[in-house]
Amino acid sequence: MPVRRIQPSDVDEVVRLVHALAEYERAPQECHLTSEQLHVSLFGTAPALFGHVAEVDGQVVGYCLWFLSYSTWRGTHGIYMEDLYVDPAQRGSGLGKALMVELAKECVDKGYQRLEWSVLKWNTPAIDFYKSIGAAPLDEWEMHRLTDSALADFAARG
């Protein structure tokens, strides 16, 4: 099967692909993920991150990482897909779709009512792919983020 749950032996390859995604998204300097960090997040004592990988000929060539979200309006969990990446040489092969189908099945099987993610506005190939599977942009919502010194400064003002 080309798509399966991530295993501890996949961590190094997934970290490599995460760094490739950061390069693709024009922000390699912002990606500091290590194999140790990802291993703890996925397989530590209280994992809150989950993932799937796509394989071709036994080689990990794609991945998605996700975590549970919650909708107070729907009263159920959902899945937030943090990353979806397929090696450029494998794009168009259906692996990205297969990874997303696994997440959709996870939602349906567990009664989750949302599968959500973010995409950079300039990433037209991804946006076109998401539209082709029936996804709709949330035009009325704007994502906000606190990080680095802004996060520390705000916490300190508490």
TrEMBL record:
This protein's GO CC annotations: ribosome
Pinpoint the N-acetyltransferase domain residues: 1-153
Superkingdom in the source lineage:
Bacteria
Its keywords, alphabetically, are:
Acyltransferase, Ribonucleoprotein, Ribosomal protein, Transferase
Query: Does Cytoplasm show up as a keyword for this record?
Result: no
For this chain, one GO molecular function annotation is: N-acetyltransferase activity
Q: Which SUPFAM superfamilies match?
A: Acyl-CoA N-acyltransferases (Nat)
Which InterPro entries did the record assign?
A: Acyl_CoA_acyltransferase (IPR016181), Diverse_Substrate_AcTransf (IPR051016), GNAT_dom (IPR000182)
- Of which family is this protein a member? Belongs to the acetyltransferase family.
Protein's UniProt name: Ribosomal protein S18 acetylase RimI
Naturally occurring in which organism (per UniProt): Allokutzneria albata (Kibdelosporangium albatum)
